[in-house]
Amino acid sequence: MNKLYKALIFDREVSLSVLETTGLVNDAIKIHGLDESSAKTLGSMLTCAAYMAGCLKSEKGAVSLTVKADGDAGTVSVSGDVNGHIRGYIDGACHGRLNGGYLTVVKDDGFYRPFVGTCELVDNDVSQNLMQYFDKSEQIPTAVAIGVKCRDGKCVAAGGVVMQLLPGTKQENMDAAEEAMQNFVSVADVIERCGADGIVNEILKDALKDEKIYQTFPEYKCNCSRKKIEGVILSLGKAEALQIIEDEGQIKVHCHYCNSDHVFSGADVDKLFK
User: Fold this and answer.
1) CA torsion sign, 187 to 192 to 195 to 200?
2) Which among 20, 57, 124, 263 has the fewest CB atoms less than 10 Å away?
3) How far is the C-alpha of 150 from the C-alpha of 155, rounded, in Å?
4) C-alpha of 191 from chain center
5) Mean of all residue pLDDT scores within the chain
6) What is the DSSP string of the chain?
7) Cα distances (Å, whole numbers) of residue 9 to 111, 130, 135, 207, 249
8) Which residues of 13-49 are buried (b: 16+ CB within 10 A; e: fewer)?
9) What does pTM read for this prediction?
10) How many CA atoms lie within 13 A of 145 on its CB side?
11) CB 213 within 8 A of CB 5
12) 100-130 burial string, b = 16+ CB within 10 Å, else e?
């Protein structure tokens, strides 16, 4: 099961998030047929999306993260919403390489006021790139430890720990957060050994003592549907839709996020416009 725990620690001056996303990554492996390298990269990005989606406040909030690597290295795109529905895909050319290029984050509050932040990729490690983003684009000191471990074609452990300093954090609490993060240098190993529950109940139990912990359950879920695709076809107009049917024999729309095709025949289009 995927889990996200959130709490304020160290005199409520540090925001803590603990994630376990093994199931999320295995769903992505199954949907996209990922090799180990791509599974680690996409899985780490999906974990980032689960974390950032868990920070959304609006009922209609959504967030997307896109990595465009240099040259022919390819693209990784993930997104999530306030309901914890996470999805993503990785370009076949990427093969897990994130050297060079940029990370772009779009946060939508649901009221048509999106925030867009971009930073240069500094490392092939997703954790380092996410820390770079928060430092350069949002000016929030953030420590990120995200990891994915695969074995025999499956993800055996995925998740992460993220700590953010709130405004006015005292030096002693900065030091305490930095010391606590040393437990998660190999965070995938920690997740495999004790899971998010073990991190909360054992490793960070002293920091979390008497603090309220919020728990949510992210899941891999695409928001595409045949109904939405029907709306796209209607926006084309009947003449153009029928022209596509004449040229191609059908209208086929592929969703990269869930790797599925929505197919409409000529009869489907006629019925739609009636």
Assistant:
1) negative
2) 57
3) 4
4) 18
5) 91
6) --EEEEEEETTTTEEEEEEE-HHHHHHHHHHHT--HHHHHHHHHHHHHHHHHHTT--STT-EEEEEEE-STTS-EEEEEEETT-EEEEEE-TTTTT---SSEEEEEEE-SSS--EEEEEE---S-HHHHHHHHIIIII---EEEEEEEEEETTEEEEEEEEEEEEPTT--HHHHHHHHHHHGGGTTHHHHHHHHHHHHIIIIITTTTTTT---EEE--EE-----HHHHHHHHHHH-HHHHHHHHHHHSSEEEEETTTTEEEEE-HHHHHHHH-
7) 31, 21, 21, 6, 60
8) bbbbbbbbbbbbbbbbbebbebebebbbbbbbbbbbb
9) 0.91
10) 21
11) yes
12) ebebbbebbbeeeeeeeeebebbeebbbebb
* Residue at 186: amino acid letter: S
**Degrees (nearest 5) of the Cα angle 133, 137, 140?**
80
Give dist(CA 34, CA 98) in Å, integer: 16
227-267 per-position pLDDT tens digit: 999 999 999 998 899 899 889 899 999 999 999 999 999 89
243's tokens: 């022209």
> Tell me: the pLDDT tens digits for 145-155?
999 999 999 99
